[in-house]
Amino acid sequence: MSFRYQQSSSALPEDRASLQIFLAQVQKRLQAFAARGLHLDMTRGKPSPEQLALAAPLLERSSAIGFRTVDGTDCRNYGGLPGIPEMRAIFANILGVPTDHVVAAGNSSLELMHGLVTAAMLNGVGSGMPAWSRCGEIRFLCPAPGYDRHFRICQEFGIDMVPVPMTDNGPDMDVVERLVADDESIKGMWCVPKYSNPTGAVYAPSVVQRLAAMHTAAADFRLFWDNAYALHHLTDEMVEIENILECCAASGHPNRPFVFTSTSKITLPGAGVAAFASSSDNLRWWMERYGVRTIGPDKLNQLRHADFLESAGHLHALMESHRRILAPKFAAVQAVFDHELAPYGIARWTRPRGGYFITLDLLSGGAQRTVDIAAEAGIVLTPAGATHPYGRDPDDRIIRIAPSYPTNEEVAQAAEGVALCVLVAVVERRLLSPEMTA
Amino acid sequence: MSFRYQQSSSALPEDRASLQIFLAQVQKRLQAFAARGLHLDMTRGKPSPEQLALAAPLLERSSAIGFRTVDGTDCRNYGGLPGIPEMRAIFANILGVPTDHVVAAGNSSLELMHGLVTAAMLNGVGSGMPAWSRCGEIRFLCPAPGYDRHFRICQEFGIDMVPVPMTDNGPDMDVVERLVADDESIKGMWCVPKYSNPTGAVYAPSVVQRLAAMHTAAADFRLFWDNAYALHHLTDEMVEIENILECCAASGHPNRPFVFTSTSKITLPGAGVAAFASSSDNLRWWMERYGVRTIGPDKLNQLRHADFLESAGHLHALMESHRRILAPKFAAVQAVFDHELAPYGIARWTRPRGGYFITLDLLSGGAQRTVDIAAEAGIVLTPAGATHPYGRDPDDRIIRIAPSYPTNEEVAQAAEGVALCVLVAVVERRLLSPEMTA
């Protein structure tokens, strides 16, 4: 049984005439929808204003908390490359790693990932390791569907992307193991191990252990482990995953994982704090690279965050507040899809246990057309294909739905609009299929 | 007449015996100094706590200013890659460029410079331009003495550094023009055009115009124009320099300059806002690169800054307050050097009209030994050689003095200690010279 996808049941009409009548009915509903002149944006995993308000104390207490860390550092001045102790401790707690294995940085974990990739490209991932830019063609494994911004970093630097199928339990490890064992040019792999973007998949313990233990032809292979949704549960079941640093160390590959997370979807996106965790060797190497680029992160913002998040109890209460805002939006989309799409057996969609996305899978294609029709009807969706390397979904099946930002009412409206667009796109295709036109 | 250096006059004793007596006297004073057990740090251009207090309203008003920009953007959420309009307008004013030619970024202009260099290395500086990392050996011109962190970026990426002599009016342009005209591998040049780090030199109008107009063998040559001290005057004379963007555009090289500045030494170092200004083409190119690395800068910090700095009048009053704190520290160092060093004709030092540093030039060498002795006496100085590419000052002459952080009393003490160390180092050397030992 799939944790992730809710398969549709039943079916569309089978004969051409009935299909045409069905299409006309759906088109009429879609026209009425479009006539409402809505502007609904479901493109990005942006928290809603209601969620942002949860962080108000972070800004309000700004002047009350002063400017000194526990160790007396004046956060108003230069320095403090690894971040302030308080914030490192909070990230250590979130990631389940020792404090000295994590550094707190700027406002963007994406920027950290980009920084690690550029450092690997121009310097190599440690002493004696070659700069990837001098290794000829190099490749990254990209579990797909995946996160478009990961893929874009590869594209920026001409890193060849090798798609790997995603299952409910993470990437297909048989494929992964075969590829990395044979191909020395495979230097890295993108992973969102918990509540994966966009499928919500959670890497099973065996998957994490195999990733840690597998033999890689490249000695400088790295897992880019983007644990963006570590605390971002949508159900009572607070999913835990295996600790990648511990697994890799136990397997004799302590330097394999580069772990990332941030408070972007805990406090304020764009004004949060990002973190990097890794082995002692990797952190030493990264601090040398990081020290070339900056004199230090914004320690005052870290201090505000530490003050706001300090008690672990508060952090969990905060995430529970986020969940109370988010879960109904996910439920609204699913209720609409259950009602509008389930009867026709043309699509399935995820019921994620956490994270920010629902993946809608049009089983026989039509994603691009759906996104185009939706745009005409006033609903902006993530571009079709964005969830795949090079923006190319080979089967044109996957649509990423981001229900977090709109209001509950807007989300339900948008879901209805999307369902109508799916029906139009799929029925249009079916009418053009060989058996229908024959 | 030099604006920069105050030449010593008079001389040391000439015969060996008198020199030895003189050395013994100075060493005795230095021992007494060291016995006071001081710990004085003159390594970095760090603002003092008194200066940091000037920015208190920036933090205190944090909750009062809300979270919306003039154009209604919610600064608490993702997005806004070019920075908020208010902050771009403030930087446009500081740099004398149109608002749409400047973007406001994160907390570090060094990080922006590093980002521009990595983008040039891995992507090339614009469409059709080759990635510098695929151009074989490449070179940067490095006016020296210069800023160690600029040089360190080059070293990080194996960019060959070519020193260019600094004059009172900026880099020696005859040398610069000859080098860039002949050598296609010269891709860039570091410039601190106003109150240069560390000499305080101000680029003369003719220097700026020649930099803008000169023929370069490399089509993708770029000026890395670090205008860090645009408003950081130490005298009544508020020095203005030529506008590099205008000069380059007028000379038919609109894409040549990459201009940087920040509020690090206006508001809070490490928690300020950095800016990048350039041509429309360059900004479009950079926004494409920047958009791969981040979803946007910390707009809330920009909003706090805009609120604090908004009126140009306030900005100038603020810089005047900084000057009132800083100028006496510079004067204290100079008074001590005038008293302790001027009589012996062994050194000269700058009297900068702005910026954060005094350059002490030991005319016949001994900088490394001076720094070593100073460390033993409780004064940490910037490592000798740091002001030169690869940390190598070929004549071992230059010491960078950063008087901003210590108190006035500490600064005077430190200057006295430094002067004693200089005397010991120079007299020791002289006693070992061939004419003395013969």
Layout of secondary structure:
2 copies of one chain form a homodimer.
Chain A (H helix, E strand, L loop, with lengths): L4 E3 L8 H20 L4 E3 L6 H5 L2 H5 L24 H11 L6 E3 L4 H15 L15 E6 L3 H9 L3 E8 L2 E2 L1 H10 L3 E6 L13 H9 L8 E5 L17 H7 L6 E6 L11 E4 L2 H14 L5 H11 L2 H29 L6 E4 L7 E5 L4 H10 L2 E3 L16 E4 L6 H25 L1 H4 L1
Parallel strand pairs in A: 2-13, 4-5, 4-7, 7-8, 8-9
Antiparallel strand pairs in A: 1-11, 3-10, 5-6, 9-10, 11-12, 12-14
General description of the model:
- 2 copies of one chain form a homodimer.
- Chain A has 438 residues and is an alpha/beta fold.
- Chain A is 42% helix and 14% strand.
- Chain A has 15 helices and 14 strands.
- Chain A has an 8-stranded mixed sheet with strand order 3-10-9-8-7-4-5-6, with helices on both faces. Chain A has a 4-stranded antiparallel sheet with strand order 1-11-12-14, covered by helices on one side.
- In chain A, strand 8, helix 9 and strand 9 (257-262) form a beta-alpha-beta unit.
- In chain A, helix 8 packs across helix 9, helix 12 packs across helix 14 and helix 13 (367-376) crosses helix 14.
- The first copy, chain A, is globular and about 75 Å long.
- The two termini of chain A are 38 Å apart.
- The mean pLDDT of chain A is 94.
Oligomer description: homodimer
Rounded to the nearest angstrom, the distance between the terminal CA atoms of chain A is 38 Å
Outline of chain A, from the CA principal axes? Answer: globular
What's the β-strand tally of chain A?
A: 14
- N-to-C SSE string of chain A, H for helix and E for strand: EHEHHHEHEHEEHEHEHEEHHHEEHEEHH
Average of pLDDT of chain A: 94
Biggest interface reads: A-B, 51 and 51 residues
What radius of gyration of chain A results from the CA coordinates? Answer: 23 Å
Strand content of chain A: 5-15%
Give the strand order, joined by hyphens, for the main sheet of chain A.
Answer: 3-10-9-8-7-4-5-6
Structural class by SSE content of chain A = alpha/beta
Biggest β-sheet strands, sense, barrel of chain A: 8 strands, mixed
Which stretches of chain A of 5+ consecutive residues score pLDDT under 50?
none
State the helical fraction of chain A. Answer: 40-55%
Helices of chain A, by number, come to 15
